[in-house]
Amino acid sequence: MSANPVDLALEANFANDLPEMASPWSAENPPDSQLVVLNEPLATALGMDPVSLRTPEGLGLLTGAQVPVGATPVAQAYAGHQFGGFVPRLGDGRALLLGEIADPAGLRWDLHLKGSGRTPFSRGGDGLATLGPMLREYVISEAMHALGVPTTRSLAVVATGRAVQRESLLPGAVLARIARSHLRVGSFQYAAQTGDIGLLRRLCDHAITRLHPAALEAPQPALALLDAVVTAQASLLTRWMLVGFVHGVMNTDNMTISGETIDYGPCAFLDAYDPATVFSSIDHAGRYAFGNQPGIAQWNLARFAESLLPLLATDQDRAVELATASIGAFGQQYTTQWSRGMRTKLGLADALDDTVAASLVTAWLALLHDNHADYTASHRALAAAARGNAESLRGQFLDLPGLDEWLTTWLSHRPDADLMDRTNPLYIPRNHLVEEALSAAIEGDLSPCNTLLQVVAAPYDERPGLEPYSQPAPDDLGTYQTFCGT
């Protein structure tokens, strides 16, 4: 365990392998760093000493103001389709890759900052972040981890002592997070649009070595990488949809090659079930609505495949054929995994006929939609209904005859209530609770945020006294909107 943060071994594999995509840079020095929250279990798992991270040297590392000797912090270059329009040069406009660390098991992780100041990719922005959005990412990414959803994770939020101008003056903060990698579909788009095949090949090799080493042994490593990313994203999207997560801004620069959820901007969880749900204040056309997410993921993967075409085959037609087949596998993988996941959420036995199970799932989702029923609470209440107590579930529905008819059919298949309790979370970072916690934090009261973090860290375990954290949003919440936080 590293006792002194300045002695931490930070590797620079990305910067060394891909200098054309790495702009050496330094974080801005915060005027008054104050630790807001530290993820001590994560720090320990990474081989870092939580006590040392609370020292001035530790805060220096967590803000990028003081990095180990020999470290090479860089702003990463990438491109991206943003709401369908291609931007050839985006990059880390307010972020910095400090380097890669190896945990005690030998796995490598990016140590990455958000809100650390302007970079060459800031495009007129100030490169800073405010406390609310950084705490939002901390809370929701840790909740996603507890739910079993692959995600970047938050190590710490540090207040900078600097006021940041948005609609009003807000307290500034830096988020330190980790990921298996910050490579994105947009990284490959950037390399491809340069026309430098050598760069594209080195990027492909770097991604394979870091994330999908099995592809090294494949006859066509680039194709094997594409297949691996398709599989990883099909699994990720399945998990999003099963827990009711809405990412909000699925641009290609926000889709990782690792299959981790990244960039928690205008994200939220479903309250009432509706596939058309949009929370983002800027998604006026509903491009990234909840129900559109699997299709958008496949569209993004098609852009990834386009970037890889020069490496798939020398013959363009053959390259397109291979790419099309790989992307086409996404739909079947997603559908199979989602169907299996929904069967589990309903406690249905594996032996139940697929057609019968599909009919139950379809009818159940229609009931949820037609009754504006809460997605999380209704699924959790099903387990009690399977044990003979449907009171809580019935409280979610207006069409009680329709619900009772479905329940009669469902109960005839003897659903497994214990399996459902292990599958359907009781506690999620509900939107109104997140907003209450962030508002309090901005005013200097961190207790609601800390309590929320403790609650969502064990989402399946019912605990006395936490009833408000399992309840649907109040009726007077109105239309909920989220913002990018930039």
Keywords:
two-stranded antiparallel ribbon, 486 residues, globular, 12% strand, five-stranded antiparallel beta sheet, alpha+beta, 43% helix
Structure description:
The structure is a single chain. Strand 6 (95-102) and strand 7 (108-114) form a beta hairpin. 49% of the residues are buried. The protein has a five-stranded antiparallel beta sheet, with helices on both faces. A two-stranded antiparallel sheet has the order 1-3. Strands 4-5 form a two-stranded antiparallel sheet. The chain has 486 residues and is an alpha+beta fold. It has helices at residues 13-17, 40-45, 50-53, 56-63, 131-146, 185-193, 197-211, 221-243, 293-312, 316-345, 354-370, 375-386, 391-394, 400-411, 417-423, 431-442, 447-456, and strands at 22-24, 34-38, 74-76, 80-82, 85-87, 95-102, 108-114, 153-165, 169-179, 245-246, 268-269. The chain has 17 helices and eleven strands. Helix 7 packs across helix 9 (293-312), helix 11 (354-370) packs antiparallel against helix 14 (400-411) and helix 16 (431-442) packs antiparallel against helix 17 (447-456). The mean pLDDT is 95.
Question: Oligomerization state of this entry?
Answer: single chain
Task: Name the strands of the widest sheet in spatial order.
Answer: 2-8-9-7-6
Characterize the main sheet: 5 strands, antiparallel
Strand content: 5-15%
Straight-line N-to-C gap: 35 Å
What is the N-to-C order of secondary-structure elements (H for helix, E for strand)?
A: HEEHHHEEEEEHEEHHHEEHHHHHHHHH
Give the % helix. Answer: 40-55%
Number of helices, where a helix is a run of at least 4 consecutive DSSP H or I residues: 17
Low-pLDDT residue intervals, each spanning 5 or more residues: none
Q: What is the total tally of β strands? A: 11
Give the CA-based shape: globular
Structural class: alpha+beta
Radius of gyration: 23 Å
The average pLDDT is 95
